[in-house]
Amino acid sequence: MVSTSIFVKGAWLFSIGLSDLIAAAVLAPQADVSHVKRQGGGPSVVPIDDRFTPHKAPVIWYAVGDSYTAGPGTGADYDADLDCARNNGSYAVQTESDFPFKESNDMEFIACSGHRAPETLARVTDFVEQDRADFMVMTVGGNDIGFAAIAVECLVKARFLPGDCDETIRKARQLLAAPKFENDIHAVYDEVFEKMKDDRHYQLYHIFYSRFFNDQTDWCDRMSFGAIVPKLTRELRKKLNLLANDLNRRLEGVVENYIQKQTKASWSQGPRLIGLNPDNLTRSNGETYGLFDGHRFCEPGKTTLRDPSVWFFGTFDKDSVEKRHVGLQTLQQYDASKCEKDPKYATNIKFSYDCDVARYFESRGGIQPAAFNALPEVLSQSFHPRTPGFGAEKRMLQQSLQKNRPAED
After folding, report:
1. What would the pLDDT profile of 89-134 be if each residue is shown by its tens digit?
2. Percent of the chain clearing pLDDT 90 (strictly above)
3. What is the pTM of this model?
4. In angstroms, what CA-CA distances link 355 with 273, 350, 373, 375?
5. Across-strand partners of 281?
């Protein structure tokens, strides 16, 4: 008997639209271009001399955290670890290729889609070499409140299926308010700074998240991400934007609380933990703005959710750059008869999703390469930045690095 979860997964796929699925899935196979570095384009800063790093080039840094650093769907695969979905359009790879200092740099890319704070902590422990990093960049916190589940319940699940968007948001708010949220992220900070030298020159940049929607327009009230999924009413868009705002405010507090409790001298000599909120930036004239303003779903003057000016993936969207086929290889990593019993099924959102997709296709007679060549990542990329969006985040990080790693005589 096929389990309820598989039925829901199959019905969810159907509810988004079979034509969209086929259009996204039949990408022609391309040659393996793993680990090819590329610059995603977009605005850049003028590189300056690095007179801050206390050793000769290269500057060594790590990119850690969840899918908002890994960059699922944005161009070709960065490496052969398809489960983590690290792609060449992510802000990390773009920053490595377009470094804000004239000196060379060496980036270690260990972010992994689906990871929460505990999994990020484990990766820092296992993969960051002691006293090697000059700085690290990270996104973490969204999966700790179940942001992926919110997107499914509120945006893409068929209205006739069981589930409750408001209840999912309520549970997310409970997780956000709980002490465990801050404690888990502080544990990651502890491990990061334990891995770096106790010196003001060694830093962590924690990048937060962005709202998906303009919630002031009326034209989007009748739009949706599928034929029988919820409409994007202003009420729904405001609820989701408010949650994103509250998540970022909570993360700002997490950063500030951690800084306040530090007693070592290195923390009084310069910024060591820098929080970057893409939705709360300040121009030189004091004006505040959001990095994705004008590039969210439902912006004024637009008529479709797939407008090329939108910097987020919708459902089954293609990026502005080519990406090679990944779906079949990813699904072949999962044993449909056993993956549900793996401990990661209960803790890793991407693992559980890919496992359920594999189980669904197994229940339908197996995976058909011709039809589902790019399925898993084309699903997991939904509601993540496209390459141009990550290009904007690259510039935000470039500016912050130049500001917080100033020249020293």
Report:
1. 999 999 999 999 999 999 999 999 989 999 999 999 999 999 999 9
2. 62
3. 0.81
4. 36, 8, 16, 12
5. 289
Q: What DSSP designation does 75 have?
A: S
Residue 349 CA to residue 146 CA, distance in Å, equals 8
In this structure, which amino acid lies at residue 140?
Answer: V
Region 24-53 average pLDDT: 57
pLDDT at 153 over 60: yes
User: Considering all CA atoms of the chain, what is the largest pairwise distance in Å, rounded to the nearest integer?
Assistant: 71
- Residues 397, 402: Cα–Cα separation, whole Å: 9
Cα–Cα distance measured from residue 378 to residue 386, given in angstroms and rounded to the nearest whole number:
12
How far apart, in whole angstroms, are the C-alpha atoms of residue 157 and residue 96? 37
- Give which of 324, 325, 322, 299 is closest to 312, Cα–Cα: 299
Burial of 391 (0-12, 13-18, 19+ CB in 10 A): buried
- Cα–chain-centroid distance for residue 100? 22
Tokens 């008529």: give the residue: 303
Which amino acid is it at 238?
Answer: K
Residue 205, both tokens: 């940049």
Q: Of 48-52, 146-150, 158-162, 234-238, which gets the smallest average pLDDT? A: 158-162
Q: Which two tokens stand for residue 383?
A: 């509601």
Structure tokens at 308: 């090329």
* Kind and range of the H or E run holding 139: strand 135-139
Cβ burial of 245 (10 Å; 0-12, 13-18, 19+) is middle
pLDDT over threshold 80, residue 269: yes
Q: What are phi and psi of 124, to 5 degrees?
A: -60, -45
